[in-house]
Structures are given as structure tokens and as C-alpha cells.
């Protein structure tokens, strides 16, 4: 067994343990921290597979942004976790068969990999070829995205933009007592609607009263 395989099995074991901690932790903050550990181990495994771009994206996007936002929401908002989990037990009959199906799929993949797929007429997936030291998969990925897959990339960007706008609109929907900004009304406003000139009559100062007050 090579040193790379030892590292793979070690980080895979830590990944399985951390993933188990995500679904077994009762505190959502602990669950998020377990998920951060799972992301780190997944990034290391991708590094072993020479997928540096995916590894750094997983660290920067998921750990650096998504998980920080998740922790902010969990820790700053008063979320009643007990109330949210109160109705989950009634779906145990549905979760158990789904879990068995997932476990069966994982076992079948491991079995086919170990037996080279001869039982189902499948051939084993060959290990990726080692690249030169000056090879950059980030550069190769960029060339593919902006040449052959340019239109799917633009389509995905448009869908994400629409999702962002929709999320903002749903968040900023009208609620009782909420003050909304009407841009069209602000643009169409006139000076006469906002400024009122009041003419105040001049008043003669009471000189005698002032003199008596001084005396």
C-alpha cells in the first residue's frame, strides 16, 4: 500500500466520522462544525486526486461563506430546534427505506470496484493518469468553460441571478408595519408637495414692556 493510499483511507475515515457527527449532533452549532471538518477532509481527498480547483473552491465557498452564514443564522437567531424536530419522527417509516437504498448503492459500488465489474459486464474505471508538474487543471477547466461550455455557463449564471433576485423579492415582501420604499413616487414628487412656504406677519416688539422689565 502506497503512502497516497494510506492518506486516502485516513482522511476518508475522518470524513465518515465527521459526516456521522453532522446528523447525530443535537446542537446545530456542533453539527455545523462537524460539517466544516467534513468539507476540509473532502478537500484533502480532492487534492489527492489532483483536483486542486475543486478543493480550493470547497474551502473558500462552502467553508468560508456558506458555513459562516449558516453559523451566523443559527447563533444570532432564536431558532427553536426542539420545535423543528418535533414532527420529524412521524417520517421514520420513509427515512428507513431510503437509508437502506443508499447503503445498498454504496455497497454495490464497492463490490463492483473490488470485482472489476465482471458480474454485470462492467469494466473497472481506470485510475487517472498522472500529469506533469507544470500542469494546471484550473487553467484547463477555464479553457473548457469559456470555449466549449460557454453557453451552459452563461445559462447557469442567469439562473443563479434569477434565484438571487427571487430570494430578495421573497425576503422583502410586504409585511404588516413594514416601511417600503416607492422609487416611482420619489421620482415623480414635486416641490409643491414637499415644501410649503408660510408667510408670517411682522410683530412690533413691545418696547415699553422691555423697558419696564429692565427697570
Summarize the structure in words.
By secondary structure, the chain is mostly helical. The protein folds into three domains: 1-86, Up-down Bundle (Four Helix Bundle (Hemerythrin (Met), subunit A)), CATH 1.20.120; 89-130, no CATH class; 134-174. 67% of the residues lie in helices and 0% in strands. The chain contains ten helices and no strands. α1 packs antiparallel against α2 (28-48) and α2 runs antiparallel to α3. The mean pLDDT is 78.
Brief summary of the model shown:
The chain is mainly α and 215 residues long.
Rg over CA atoms, rounded to whole Å, is: 32 Å
Helix amount = 55-70%
**Separation of the first and last Cα atoms:** 111 Å
The low-confidence runs, each spanning 5 or more residues with pLDDT under 50, are none
Look at the structure and give the mean pLDDT.
78
The ordered string of helix (H) and strand (E) elements is: HHHHHHHHHH
Gross CATH architecture of the largest domain? Up-down Bundle
Ordered list of secondary-structure elements with their pairings:
Blueprint: H1 3-24, H2 28-48, H3 52-76, H4 81-84, H5 92-114, H6 137-145, H7 150-171, H8 183-187, H9 191-194, H10 207-214
Helix pairs in contact: 1-2, 2-3
Features:
215 residues, mainly alpha, Four Helix Bundle (Hemerythrin (Met), subunit A), 10 helices, 67% helix
Amino acid at each position: 500500500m502506497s503512502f497516497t493510499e494510506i492518506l486516502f483511507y485516513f482522511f476518508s475515515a475522518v470524513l465518515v466520522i465527521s459526516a456521522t457527527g453532522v446528523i447525530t449532533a443535537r446542537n446545530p452549532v456542533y453539527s455545523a462544525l462537524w460539517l466544516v471538518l467534513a468539507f476540509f477532509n473532502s478537500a484533502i481527498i480532492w487534492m489527492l486526486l489532483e483536483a486542486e480547483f475543486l478543493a480550493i473552491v470547497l474551502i473558500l465557498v462552502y467553508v468560508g461563506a456558506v458555513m459562516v452564514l449558516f453559523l451566523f443564522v443559527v447563533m444570532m437567531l432564536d431558532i427553536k430546534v426542539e420545535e423543528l424536530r418535533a414532527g420529524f419522527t412521524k417520517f421514520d417509516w420513509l427515512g428507513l427505506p431510503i437509508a437502506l437504498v443508499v447503503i445498498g448503492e454504496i455497497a454495490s459500488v464497492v463490490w463492483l470496484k473490488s470485482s472489476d465489474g465482471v458480474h454485470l459486464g462492467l469494466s473497472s474505471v481506470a485510475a487517472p493518469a498522472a500529469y506533469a508538474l507544470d500542469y494546471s487543471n484550473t487553467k484547463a477547466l477555464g479553457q473548457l468553460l469559456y470555449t466549449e461550455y460557454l453557453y451552459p455557463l452563461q445559462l447557469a449564471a442567469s439562473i443563479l441571478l434569477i434565484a438571487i433576485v427571487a430570494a430578495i423579492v421573497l425576503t422583502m415582501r410586504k409585511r404588516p408595519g413594514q416601511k417600503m420604499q416607492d422609487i416611482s413616487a420619489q421620482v415623480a414628487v414635486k416641490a409643491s408637495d414637499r415644501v410649503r412656504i408660510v408667510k408670517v406677519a411682522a410683530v412690533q416688539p413691545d418696547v415699553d414692556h422691555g423697558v419696564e422689565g429692565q427697570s
